[in-house]
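Researcher: We're reviewing a set of sequences before deciding which ones to prioritize for further study. For each one, I'd like a predicted 3D structure that I can look through quickly. This is DNA polymerase IV. If possible, include the structure in token form so it fits the rest of the review sheet.
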Amino acid sequence: MRTIDEYYPAKGRVILHVDMNAFYCSVHEAEEPDKYRGKPTAVAGSVELRKGIIVTCSYAARRLGVSTGMLVNQALKKCPNLIVIPPDFTAYRKYSNAFMKIAYEYTPCMEATSIDECYLDITGSKQFGTPQEIATIIQKRIYMELSLPCSVGIAPNKLLAKMASDMNKPNGLTVLRIRDVPKILWDKPCDQLFGIGGRTADKLRKINIHTIGQLANSEEMLLTQTFGVLGVWMKQAANGLDQSPVLENREQSKSIGHTTTLPSDIYLKEDVHRVLLNLSDQVARRLRRKQMVAGAIQITIRTPDMKTITRMHTLSAPTENTEDIYSKACQLYNEHWSWDKSVRLLGVTLQQLMPKEDSAIQLDLFNYEQHPKKESLTKAMDLLRNKYGENAVLTAGMLGDDPSVLIRNHKIRGTSLQMDFRDKEDENLS
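Model: Here's the predicted structure for DNA polymerase IV, in token form for your review sheet.
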């Protein structure tokens, strides 16, 4: 019988990747099992508001041809009895915190990479058993305590742990060692290697590299000539090598963004500016909540034909102020978009973030005396919204000339579009 020490390499690492299966749908099943368990379900936005894209779907729905990214109308044609559920991010965050709390009990070295997955370095966790025993315990506890299924990958590094967790879904538990890579991975196409997307795979095919095995055995010089330093990483990854650590304390957010798909295409200046003001207010609030400031502002524009452009401007001094963010967002829009062209989606993203205490916020030479008053007012507004909700305090610019109509000519009440700005939040933590 093997001892526990034999499972743990003397100089190597043991990494788990815990990946929740169909997480959003699973949360709804856990909350209302009688209503959803075992049935074809999908989480999607509002079809009426043109956000009818399948975010995720249950395995019962997948077996009937439904897939992530599919239009709701298309999914309903494939599966007429599909149950479409609106997203509930409060519930998702609650369950995310709960499953990570369970995982954290087995090692303090945990890296959450998204709301539904995390890496665990269990090299120093022998007291809990072998890697397979620890993975099994975590998987069973998450299911017994939260009614959520998950897959777990066990490997000597993050790359292979991630790939292992994808191999046997749902409820899989897979071990992938470096010595297993040639047999298990080398015959697969390059885009099945985690970190290589479709475009990179297309470029690899152009230099006659079609499989992970061919990539693993290719000339490094050829790869660096085509891909630069990325070529070195790809060859190492194809051989199952990865030295990236599990980061216990994640870096501060590198960006904070907010986008909204508009109920109707807009092009009028006052309508666009009103949307940008709402977006700027949302991201500024989240920025202040994190006690950070932004050094750059980026806007995102998507046209009715789904073309997307982004434009960014680096600020002369960092800011946390809604007015500064809104002003720069409007300036970017004015400079890079024509007022006779409609837009379907708008977004504002804050880049180059840094802790507020480490920054020097520039004060206006003529208005510096008003800065403490503005800051106090902003804090008061944030407190009111934290307590009573986003709509507790609205500026005149958010409401427009007619407070009952937020976007002119489109019959959208102020509160409804304000709610729609939860369409997509993005915090890039990688």
